[in-house]
């Protein structure tokens, strides 16, 4: 069944049937029925743990979905997840909806109907990773944006790299990629200066197609 639940002070409970939960604007998760309470869901004190049937619209109402900022429907039944998401969006048109879907075609159709900008498929994400591994290209993460496959890669430039002495802007224009961050002693520096000249040993985070990522990694 589609259960609505939220983590309390002692973490979260995993249900065999999956789970659906939501988050209020203050960051607290909301969930269904108080222990021992007859019937539907009711909000208890912060940090308490409750669960109920998220397929019932009344459960969502009593759990506070009308003032929640987001809801996650991730049961093992995608139609149940869709039903929960539809009810939540009907009750709160501005709520952010995350659905667990198994059918890629259905997921695409649902994303359009829900006006969800990003859809991730486990199989779609895994395939590029296997392809990258087969070509021995270092890829940290792969995703699709507007149907185009993009890869995130960590690149450390060695002294023998042909890109040493070039600016980040020159590298981006040459490979049609985006250098989104640079590693420094204090962590990741986002959006490094385009006119910075690459030096040996510097580490960067790059987004691009497989060809660009391969060129950067092979040139290290």
TrEMBL record:
Composition-biased stretches (Gly residues): 29-42
Gene3D superfamilies linked to this entry: NAD(P)-binding Rossmann-like Domain, Regulator of K+ conductance, C-terminal domain
InterPro entries according to UniProt: NAD(P)-bd_dom_sf, RCK_C, RCK_C_sf, RCK_N, Trk_Ktr_HKT_K-transport
Region annotated Disordered, chain positions: 1-48
RCK C-terminal domain ranges (all copies): 140-220
PROSITE patterns in the record: RCK_C (PS51202)
UniProt record, GO biological process: potassium ion transport
Protein's name in the database: RCK C-terminal domain-containing protein
Organism from which the protein derives: Candidatus Thermofonsia Clade 3 bacterium
